[in-house]
Structure to design on (338 residues):
């Protein structure tokens, strides 16, 4: 199925009420915030409650902003520090399972490596085959527009798509602050966000016949971003087909002294050191040295989220440009390229 037809199908079907799955799916859930994050456990619980078979395969530490890093040909050795929330201690193997739950795997590496572990090792051990679906997230904070290039959440989904496994990246505007799985309580906002993702998964499963019997067409995935909402209202949020666009929840840029940056100081425990590094522009007065593209298209995912709707963007397998810009480059390089 072409992406344009998929958009039409989704646009019609996602307006439906919560749908039960057509069949139980085998799902790997991953993220970039760590396997102990409240969001990934809320999603794990809700997908299981909907009848799916689910495993978690996610980083041992906070791996936000790692993008598509693979750490290939680098052995994963014994852990040198405790996992992010402390359930796995320093000195433990670099890959293992969470105490008390053999379906929750940690990988002391990048989000992409963690997703691959789920696809290549954990899934065959659990189901004897690759998963039917990978869901990456839910991330604390939206991943929209240009920040997606550096997002571990989005790139963990992209590696699955590249391996022939349908995938969804999911992020939420709120909450933006990490907390551990053991702090979850009934009624928390994490569960409302998770229910939106479950609703999408179930509808895609229900509509498989429209994509040749597949959850998504080959080489296609989704980037889902959820807006902030009042408690108890998530089920009523409009869902809109969007495009990735350029507008973003954050723009990375380099500063000579992170200790003078408010975002870095709020993110790094104890405050940022007086050292250079990359920070994020997330709003307010724009730094004088920051150049950035603008995007006012209401269909761009960040603008959809800001308008109060769930944005669902269709992603493809690689960075190949569309035909029009490719044709323009062909004209420019006509004397050189054949």
């Amino acid at each position: 199925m072409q992406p344009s037809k998929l958009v039409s199908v989704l646009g019609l079907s996602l307006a439906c009420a919560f749908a039960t799955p057509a069949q139980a799916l085998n799902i790997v859930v991953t993220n970039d915030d760590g396997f102990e994050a409240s969001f990934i456990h809320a999603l794990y619980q809700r997908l299981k409650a909907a009848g799916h078979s689910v495993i978690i395969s996610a980083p041992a530490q906070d791996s936000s902003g790692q993008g598509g890093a693979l750490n290939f040909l680098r052995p994963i050795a014994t852990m040198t520090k405790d996992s992010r929330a402390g359930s796995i201690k320093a000195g433990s193997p670099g890959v293992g399972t969470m105490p008390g739950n053999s379906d929750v795997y940690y990988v002391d590496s990048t989000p992409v490596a963690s997703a691959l572990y789920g696809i290549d090792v954990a899934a065959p051990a659990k189901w004897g085959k690759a998963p039917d679906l990978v869901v990456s997230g839910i991330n604390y904070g939206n991943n929209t527009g240009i920040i997606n290039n550096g997002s571990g959440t989005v790139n963990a989904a992209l590696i699955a798509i590249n391996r022939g496994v349908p995938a969804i990246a999911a992020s939420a505007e709120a909450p933006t602050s990490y907390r551990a799985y053991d702090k979850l309580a009934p009624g928390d906002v994490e569960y409302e966000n998770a229910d939106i993702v479950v609703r999408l998964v179930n509808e895609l499963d229900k509509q498989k016949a429209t994509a040749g019997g597949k959850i998504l067409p080959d080489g296609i995935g989704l980037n889902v971003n959820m807006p902030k909402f009042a408690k108890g209202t998530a089920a009523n949020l409009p869902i809109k087909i969007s495009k990735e666009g350029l507008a973003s929840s954050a723009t990375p840029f380099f500063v000579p002294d992170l200790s003078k940056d408010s975002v870095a100081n709020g993110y790094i425990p104890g405050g940022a050191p007086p050292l250079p590094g990359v920070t994020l522009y997330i709003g307010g007065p724009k730094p004088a040295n920051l150049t950035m593209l603008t995007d006012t298209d209401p269909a761009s995912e960040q603008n959809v989220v800001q308008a109060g709707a769930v944005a669902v963007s269709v992603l493809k397998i690689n960075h190949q440009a569309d035909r029009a810009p490719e044709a323009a480059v062909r004209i420019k390089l006509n004397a050189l390229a054949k």
Notes: Residues 1-18 have pLDDT under 50 and may be disordered. The chain has two domains: 3-245+294-332, 248-292. The longest strand covers residues 133-140. The helical segments are 3-13, 38-49, 111-127, 152-162, 189-206, 262-267, 301-306, 323-332.
